[in-house]
């Protein structure tokens, strides 16, 4: 197994250098060929998916698979249409490779260009969703990154069919190097992939919190992702109450299973009696179970809110992923910030306020990848952030943070162009000075 | 020990949120206070350094320390002056915090700002050089990053004296949060630091290759650095020979112990007989030991070059850090690229050529952080690249690559400003469309 996985990774690495230099035109042609191949081979893909579904149905009967997983596994006509249009959307995105990010004249005839380039080899490890294959493959192709896919065994046939159709289509464009995309299929492959830091430059795990955490804990390779989304909304004294009702409701119920839904509502004690009873009624009318701290419990009780439940200590650190919300009273914005930085997951947090000074403090001191001012936490998403396509949401503090688009798959190299310039002329007593003049000149390569 | 280290890290983490929001003015005042405090307390610092030097002298006598390490440890008047002016140089650098990196109007009144912010807590682990303390502390302060220093025990007294003088000076500026900078002193602290991924966001090790490799292998925290510098120069058939002689010499001998000095010279076989004999003479006149592959050996032998030595297989993977160079003949630029990507350390590689097509191929396909075109490898350096100060040289493929300045200590957060905007209005059959219009508007906070 190790040798097989290593061989795949080594092939991807070798192809990655070539893929990094393929022209935009060839990449876009390959993407169109991929979209057409999917359309042409729809039946093959659905047949393969049916095999996976049959096996999954047997597992559900034995209690070994959830209905939710079955839904994610199942290809529909709508999902298939989205797959195809998703590939064409990526073809429309600007090519991120070879952009001159900065240019600095060090001295006459000695110019330093910082030029964007792909990271190299991306490892994508994902669970049931077969739609990950076309989505990630198109993003990685356009950004010039070789990719190793490892899908869940429950989607084995679907993944293989999609992978074969897509890579066969790519082969019709001779500029695309063979071997840039690899599919790993055995269960042991995951453990092997995690060891291959000499070949794989970045891992993108997609799946449950536990799954991502397992990956993070067992590899030296950089991981782009997030393990949990414990998001908050804080309602300040100065909040516009109608805005607060609307935003706090949407942040919880618009899609409660998403990582960017809120789990805890923090309310300033000076507004709590005015705001909280109506907010509780709105939540309860929308089927949200509420868990109160002592202070908010009293307010809710006095207002005659039914079905009161106290929050336990662990509630403040829990991602419900469900129609459940914990509620806590805080003394001011500082207490809210402290609670969020301590209990949150540095993902997305919301302030409802009309006081600019307070808003600035919250936006500055809350250490999260997205801070929402009078807007729903649910906006924290690659598509909504205008990225065209989302690679993932990162709670890392380096490289990429928050919703990550194709830019998260890019790095840069420095190209210094001279005509015999040597360092010895720039050191010592008669050292020439550096000019260090920024210019707008672009690095141009012949093509 | 664990509790003490954890406590320091926890204090730094708590202070980091505040430090991220300190005004430019307060940070620059603190830097000036630090520079003045160094000048005022020069004697205290030299006395502490003398203690370390006395202990080091005893170790040298016992053969437990090298003379080179002693030199790095020793503060001189010149080094001290550089320390002080280095702090004032950082004060002059533009504040990298709070820059609006991009602005996107998602819809009327709903604007997404991407704003630069510090990474958080940096862990700096370094060997003998006490001058690391003021240099890194000033960079981290200006960039708003809390920092934990762990220096080598051989510089214990110097580090403590510098750390105390500098942090005392900072305390005169009330806006700087206490506890943002921490000094760890015991040997066990390194192992503890490596475990503290809940507090430390980035590690910057400075020291030998083995030291950096040890850090990389024993932590989940992201590491900025490089373990080795196996750099190459490739002389193409089209090379201007005078340029090639000059650049290849400087790349080797200008400072052979540096990571950006070349270790291997690759020569196109079509130019080798013309180029190599004179190049060998130049190298030998400058004290460089040469190790030849079979083909270059024959050419050198035929030209009557003395002291011929064959390169062994391991030479191609060796960083000599010394006046030694291995030489190999290659058939064309493709073979050169293949050799470099296989044996190099993705650090810095040079092409000598006048053929633009060949240069483009080399610059595109060599997978290194710096590619030099007709210029010395020794230019790959933060100061020479105009960064004002160098945090390190990175061979990572994510976040920062090549010589890294203060920008390597930065990340960003997204701030979405709305007025009650909710996601439910943008989904479903009657979904409002997103505008996704880029603007030049900056995120402004009151101050």
From TrEMBL, chains A, B:
It is an enzyme of class 1 (oxidoreductase). GO terms for biological process: L-proline biosynthetic process. The keyword NADP applies. Pathway: Amino-acid biosynthesis; L-proline biosynthesis; L-glutamate 5-semialdehyde from L-glutamate: step 2/2. InterPro entries: Ald_DH/histidinol_DH, Ald_DH_C, Ald_DH_N, Aldehyde_DH_dom, G-glutamylP_reductase_CS, Glu-5-SA_DH, GPR_dom. It is found in: Cytoplasm. Its EC number is 1.2.1.41. Keywords: Amino-acid biosynthesis, Cytoplasm, NADP, Oxidoreductase, Proline biosynthesis. Pfam families: Aldedh (PF00171). Its main location: cytoplasm. One of its GO terms (molecular function) is NADP binding. Residues 3-283 form the Aldehyde dehydrogenase domain. It catalyses: L-glutamate 5-semialdehyde + phosphate + NADP(+) = L-glutamyl 5-phosphate + NADPH + H(+). The keyword Cytoplasm applies. Catalyzes the NADPH-dependent reduction of L-glutamate 5-phosphate into L-glutamate 5-semialdehyde and phosphate. The product spontaneously undergoes cyclization to form 1-pyrroline-5-carboxylate. Belongs to the gamma-glutamyl phosphate reductase family. This is Gamma-glutamyl phosphate reductase.
């Amino acid at each position: 197994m190790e040798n097989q996985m290593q061989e795949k990774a080594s092939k991807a690495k070798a192809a990655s250098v070539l893929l990094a230099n393929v022209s935009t035109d060839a990449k876009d042609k390959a993407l169109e060929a991929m979209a057409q191949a999917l359309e042409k081979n729809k039946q093959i893909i659905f047949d393969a998916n049916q095999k996976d579904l049959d096996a999954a149905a047997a597992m559900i009967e034995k209690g070994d698979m959830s209905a939710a997983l079955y839904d994610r596994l199942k290809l529909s006509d709508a999902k298939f249409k989205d797959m195809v249009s998703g590939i064409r959307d990526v073809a429309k995105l600007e090519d991120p490779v070879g952009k001159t990010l900065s240019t600095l004249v060090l001295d006459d005839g000695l110019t330093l260009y910082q030029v964007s380039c792909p990271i190299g080899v991306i490892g994508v490890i994902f669970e049931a969703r077969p739609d990950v294959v076309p989505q990630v493959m198109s993003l990685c192709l356009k950004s010039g990154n070789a990719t190793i896919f490892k899908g869940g065994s429950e989607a084995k046939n679907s993944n293989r069919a999609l992978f074969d159709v897509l890579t066969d289509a790519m082969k019709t464009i001779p500029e695309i190097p063979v071997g840039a995309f690899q599919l790993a299929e055995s269960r042991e492959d995951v453990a092997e992939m995690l060891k291959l830091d000499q070949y794989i430059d970045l891992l993108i795990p997609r799946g449950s919190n536990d799954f991502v955490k397992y990956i993070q804990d067992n590899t030296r390779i950089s991981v782009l992702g997030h393990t949990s989304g414990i998001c908050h909304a804080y309602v300040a004294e100065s909040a516009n109450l109608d805005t607060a009702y609307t935003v706090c409701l949407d942040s919880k119920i618009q899609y409660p299973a998403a990582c960017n839904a809120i789990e805890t509502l923090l309310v300033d004690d000076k507004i709590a009696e005015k705001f909280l009873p109506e907010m509780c009624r709105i939540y309860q009318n929308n089927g949200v179970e509420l868990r109160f701290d002592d202070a908010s419990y009293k307010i809710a009780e006095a207002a005659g809110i039914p079905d009161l439940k106290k929050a336990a200590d662990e509630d403040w650190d829990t991602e419900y992923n469900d129609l459940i919300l914990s509620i806590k009273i805080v003394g001011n914005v500082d207490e809210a910030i402290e609670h969020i930085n301590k209990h949150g997951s540095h993902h997305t947090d919301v302030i409802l306020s009309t006081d600019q000074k307070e808003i600035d403090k919250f936006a500055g001191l809350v250490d999260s990848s997205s801070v929402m001012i009078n807007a729903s936490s649910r906006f924290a998403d690659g598509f909504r952030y205008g990225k065209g396509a989302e690679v993932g949401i990162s709670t890392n503090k380096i490289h990429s943070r928050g919703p990550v688009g194709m830019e998260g798959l890019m790095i840069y190299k420095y190209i210094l162009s001279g005509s015999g310039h040597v360092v010895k002329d720039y050191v010592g007593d008669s050292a020439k000075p550096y000019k260090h003049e920024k210019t707008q000149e672009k690095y141009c390569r012949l093509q």
